[in-house]
Design brief:
Layout: H1 7-12, E1 21-22, E2 27-38, E3 43-50, E4 55-61, E5 77-84, E6 90-97
Parallel strand pairs: 1-4
Antiparallel strand pairs: 2-3, 2-5, 3-4, 5-6
């Protein structure tokens, strides 16, 4: 399934993403893709649960091909790479499917 059309559609489906926070750390993390939806600024919002149980929301943008997130099935196990921009904000830079996914 491609991404939900909006946060409103997630709520209509009974999916609550209130507990997901923006990632503040940089590095490589294993995570499950819980759900995804299109944002208001030509971006896709992806909601992940990291191996340590933390729930993280990250954006992917058109200029990166959305990191292929719209095509990845919910529940897929992924390896995520977060970098840090010059302004200090952590960003999702790479998404890789784990073996067998």
């Amino acid at each position: 399934m491609r991404a939900y059309s909006s946060l409103r559609q997630l709520k209509e489906k009974g999916i609550c993403v209130d507990e997901y926070l923006t990632n503040k750390r940089e590095g490589v993390f294993n995570a499950r893709l819980d759900c995804k939806c299109w944002g208001k600024k030509r971006n896709v919002l992806a909601y992940f649960t990291f191996e340590d149980g933390s729930k993280v929301m990250a954006s992917a943008w058109q200029n990166t091909g959305y990191l292929d997130i719209p095509e990845i099935e919910e529940g897929a196990m992924l390896t995520l790479t977060f970098g840090r921009a010059k302004n200090g904000i952590s960003y999702l830079g790479k998404v890789e499917r784990n073996n067998g996914q």
